[in-house]
Amino acid sequence: MDFKDKLRGFLTGRYGGDPLNTVISVFSLVALIAAVVVASVFRTTAGVIIAAVMYLVSLGALVLSIFRTFSRNLSARRAEYDWFRTRFIDPFKKGSAKRKARKAQSATHRFFKCPACRQTVRVPRGKGKIRITCPKCGNTFIKKT
How far apart are CA 31 and CA 132, in angstroms? Predict the structure, then answer.
């Protein structure tokens, strides 16, 4: 068997990489760079201790990323990624879609926040001063469109 076949056999059934692994790896690299900067700038005992802690955090994150990559417990790694996706990626995408939709409608509509409940209210442009009634709480306020 050549090296490629041995490597393919070793990686069979392993989890591999995902966006969470990428985030952990980038965090590890940033923490390592920060540790080097802190160690070189602050040459006091406290600076060295802080740099050592940051280095250990960086090393721990790197080990975690490698562990996740080579893990055979696929369901646990998927559960970790699903937790990460629902907490961090999905809210960003949802907010991005809202901003995109609002930008597309900005030529014909204005958006205001209700002063009472902070609900976003969409009203047509070019109507002058109008009284807006919040659909959520029923509060009325006057704005120029």
Answer: 50
Are both 79 and 137 inside the same structural domain?
no
d(CA 4, CA 131): 71
The CA distances from residue 4 to 1, 9, 11, 21, in Å, are: 8, 9, 10, 24
Neighbours of 145 (CB within 10 A): 14
- Residue pLDDT, tens place only, 113-137: 999 999 999 999 999 999 999 999 9
- Could you tell me the two tokens for 114? 């209700």
Same domain for 65 and 125, yes or no, is no
26 and 85 in a single domain? The answer is: yes
In terms of pTM, does the model score above 0.90? Answer: no
